[in-house]
Amino acid sequence: MPQDIIRRTEPGALLGEGPLWSRRDQCVYWVDILSHKLNAWYLDGRQQTWSFDCPVCWVIEREKGGFIAGLMTGFAELSLDPFVVRHIVNPYPHEPENRLNDAKADDRGRIWAGSMHKPITRTSGGWHRLNTDKSVTHVDGPYTIPNGPAFSADHRQVFHTDTDLRQVFLFDIDAEGELAGKRPWLTFPEDWGYPDGMTMDAQGGLWIAHWGAARITRFKMDATPDFHIDLPAKQITSMAFAGNDLNRLFVTSAAIDLPDDREAGTLFEIPSESLRGHTGLEPQKFKG
Predict the structure, then answer these.
(1) Cα dihedral angle (104, 149, 18, 27), rounded to 10 degrees?
(2) In 3-state terms, what secondary structure has residue 272?
(3) Are 288 and 134 in contact (CB under 8 A)?
(4) Is 192 helix (H, G, I), strand (E, B) or coil?
(5) CB 49 within 8 A of CB 32
(6) Distance of CA 103 to the CA centre of its chain
């Protein structure tokens, strides 16, 4: 274990994903999609887990309390105490083998979520927007493995990835949520692995997880690498700034197909002194 990397959980999550900082609950939420579990790591060191009856792909806080969850069956309202799941809408009713994969809320309180084929044998995924009236708008596609998105600080641009293509795209976005000007922004070479989850920092850099290459990289807005941080697990999936000053970085990883990787599936923390002064942006909440 590199000296500046802290193990916050035991390894073994099959597909650790979707880290979310909750100032309200003083914890980092994250999911193990394939084990159907939502986990919480609290700043005081406590941990907690909730089990679902299907893949749970992410959770996003709701402004009026509770969460919106991304499930195999689509978008759902979620309460943890008491534990209640209420289905909202399935954005892909004609694709029963699809599931949601990775999502973020924007500054208008809408949720942008990708979907993908669960066996990953077809390019049947898309990119969907859950509006505050709980209607769904299909915004782009098709995708094989959509990841991200990540919004610029002014919410005038948004990054989105198709991991299978090793391609990060950049879009312009207006106040109504309309996308324009889709263009390739960055293509990962083979020795970088695959681009997975992303997050923006408050200083205008984009952080990307490298699936298969055991690291995360901060990129400048001209798509050049600024610096990278090596991690002790190969399949790095996503990251989120956390803590009351948003100066701690929590990183998820996956153990699927890696029985000999002793750190795979761990939730890691990279402390502030290793982040070169970079801090995060406050996560947005769903306003519906």
Answers:
(1) -50
(2) helix
(3) yes
(4) helix
(5) no
(6) 6
Q: What SS3 state is found at 283?
A: coil
Residue 287: alpha-carbon gap to chain centroid: 19
Taking the C-alpha atoms of residue 44 and residue 141, their distance in angstroms, rounded to an integer, is 41
Cis peptide before 96 (omega within 30 of 0): no
Give the closest residue to 211 by CA, choosing from 240, 186, 235, 191: 235
Closest CA to 1 of 277, 251, 279, 280: 251
Judge contact between 51 and 37, C-beta under 8 A: yes
pLDDT tens, position by position, 81-98: 999 999 999 999 999 999
**Which amino acid is located at 90 in the chain?**
N
Coil/strand/helix, residue 34: helix
How confident is the model over 256-275, as pLDDT tens digits?
A: 999 888 999 999 999 999 99
Residue 11 has pLDDT above 60, yes or no: yes
Q: Which amino acid makes up residue 94? A: H
Tokens of 151: 């919004």
Q: Which tokens hold the place of 5?
A: 């990397």
Cα 108-157-141 angle, rounded to 5 deg: 90
Q: Which residues pair with 106 in a beta bridge?
A: none
